[in-house]
Amino acid sequence: MVKYVFVTGGVVSGLGKGITGASLGRLLKARGYRVVMKKFDPYINIDPGTMNPIQHGEVFVTDDGTETDLDLGHYERFINESLNKNSNVTTGKIYWAVINKERHGDYGGGTVQVIPHITNEIKSRFVTEDVDGVDTVAIIEIGGTAGDIESQPFLEAIRQFQADVGRENAIVIQVTLIPYLKASGELKTKPAQMSAKNLQSMGIWPNILVCRSDYPLDEHLKEKLALFCNVKKEHVLENLDAEFLYEVPIMLEKENFAKAVCDSLSIACPEPDLKEWEQMLDNLHHPDKEVTVSLVGKYVSLHDAYLSVVEALKHGGISNRAKVNINWIDSEEITKENVENKLKDSDALIVPGGFGTRGIEGMITAIGYAREKKKPFLGICLGMQLSLIEYARNVAGLEGATSTEFDENAKYPVIHIMPDKEGLEDVGGTLRLGSYPCDLTDNTIARSLYGEEHITERHRHRYEVNNEYREILTKAGLVFSGMSPDKRIVEMLELPTHPFFVATQAHPEFKSRPDKAHPLFRGFIKAAIEYKEKTVKEG
To answer: pLDDT tens digits for 428-453?
Structure first.
């Protein structure tokens, strides 16, 4: 049987509902449960694929090619499971489905309304497949804050769903805020009380309160919250700020979070197996090395735009027992005159993905610097395309080489749009998305790092290497170390004359885990450590 846990937010947004849900997923999986995670977002976009990264953060891509909210990245990293198209639902998707059904005549000419049609569609997305013989817990995060007009249909759907399956099979966790008033030196519970009452006014009674706070909650505060919010005192849990994100599951385990959930669902709560997670945290807390990586991008004003890249760099550090510092550099600020000053103190350079012409020349200049100075370099998606452009211009002699994304009339279009993407007018959902196979070339860095010939990686792009220039670039010394099985698409490239100059058309950061770093990031940080050690030795 499937049990359901709904995670809602109260008082303000940004309290960490996603991390709370992901941490619970880790704790339940460590107890042997099958965990399924979903995120329901109240915005009207079909998906975040067309959203500005500086406004919304990164777009996380699943194996099946679904463009999703960045919280799904947290889910995958914490529970180490690949999610899919059913894992992220938006208001846009719900209304799109209902309107299409109405146009098809599925409602028999009836008046289509929020209740029951919209809420029924939402409830149908709550339902999780029951696998025979496997105890399953579905953790469903509701985006936004209780009281937002956009979230009301989702909350109403929860009320109905609890009635459908029974309250003992579907519980609600309210992540709320306990603010601290500096003037009076007090923690105040009133906002959390009102938030809980807001839910109760909709017919939803929270089973557990996860209280975000700057300071520990004393017994008096917990008793007060329990009394006014109508929850058990032992189900009022504190969730303080953590130095590292991955500490949160252990912090919540000490608060008996999983026990509160299991008790509420009337399921067993055996001792968890968290040995691997605790070992990962030990590496994280006790690094014996330190490196600085320059991240050169066009969305650096919002670090969440590169969230999975940042986490993957941390994972690479954990696996090498090294602290990784990130030097954030806006590519628009890089010129040939200042690139030395901006990058000289870094031990490695990474250029992540992106779209459009802004900041491109700065990235190309930075890549050229890394190539010439033998600094470890990792290019991701756009970063791979720009590394090829830089090499074509400055080594292969193709002056002015570029991508048709930046100049449709380029003399040397070494990067061009994929043939099956030409002429498409819609920008949403029209990229090459999801997991694709790649064959690695023997005697290359990529082959050595992966340890196998055939791999799969997730993608999100519509431009590719122009095959007309492959021979010229190969003769100039570039190695295409990864190809699609049909040899049509260049997936990876590297320089054999460089200690670590590797670029991939894929997004390997999406598959990296804190306790299992992605091979490219593990190798990249190892190369950064070696570069630093060599630099120090040489003085």
So the answer is: 667 899 999 999 999 999 999 999 99
Per the annotation, the verdict on 156 as an active-site residue is no
Are the C-beta atoms of residues 173 and 20 closer than 8 Å to each other? yes
How many alpha carbons lie under 13 Å from residue 172 in its C-beta half-sphere?
30
Instruction: Measure the CA dihedral 441/444/446/451, to 10°.
Output: 80
Cα–Cα dist 317/534, whole Å: 18
pLDDT tens digit sequence for 132-182 = 889 999 999 999 898 889 999 999 999 999 999 999 999 999 999 999 999
SS3 486: coil
Q: Is residue 14 very low, low, confident or very high in pLDDT (cuts 50, 70, 90)?
A: confident
pTM flag (> 0.90): yes
Tokens of 367: 């890549």
Catalytic residue among 211, 229, 381, 438: 381
Q: Tokens 């380029």, residue?
A: 410
Taking the CA of residue 129 as centre, how many other CA atoms within 13 Å lie in the half-sphere pointing to its CB? Answer: 5
Query: In the prediction, which pLDDT does 423 show?
Result: 61
Pair 477, 496: CB distance under 8 Å = yes
Q: Considering 67, 211, 509, 518, which one is annotated as catalytic?
A: 509
Show Cβ contacts of residue 274 under 8 Å, excluding neighbours closer than 6 positions: 27, 30, 249, 250, 253
**Which residues are CB-contacts of 256 (< 8 A; sequence separation ≥ 6)?**
234, 237
How far is it, in rounded angstroms, from Cα 67 to Cα 62? 7
Residue 362, helix vs strand vs coil: helix
381 an active-site residue?
yes
Q: How many CB atoms lie within 10 A of CB 219?
A: 9
Residues 6+ apart with CB under 8 A from 74: 18, 19, 22
Label residue 422 left, alpha or beta by phi (over 0 means left) and psi (-120 to 50 means alpha): beta
pLDDT in tens, 387-415: 999 999 999 999 999 999 999 999 999 99
Does the annotation count 509 as an active-site position? yes
Q: Would you state the structure tokens that stand for residue 499, as one six-digit string?
A: 């200690």
- Cα radius of gyration (the chain): 25
Kindly report the length of the chain: 539
**At 133, phi and psi to the nearest 5?**
80, 5
Quote the crossing angle between the two packed helices 71-79 and 17-29, to the nearest 10°.
20
Phi, psi of 200 (to 5 degrees): -65, -35
Sheet with 413-417: list strands edge to edge: 402-403, 413-417, 463-465
Q: Tell me which of 235, 459, 498, 507 is the catalytic residue.
A: 507
Asked whether 209 and 192 are in contact (CB, 8 A), the reply is yes
Q: What is the pLDDT of residue 60?
A: 95
> What pLDDT was estimated at residue 415?
96
The DSSP secondary-structure symbol of 4 reads E
What's the CA gap between 451 and 458, in Å, rounded?
18
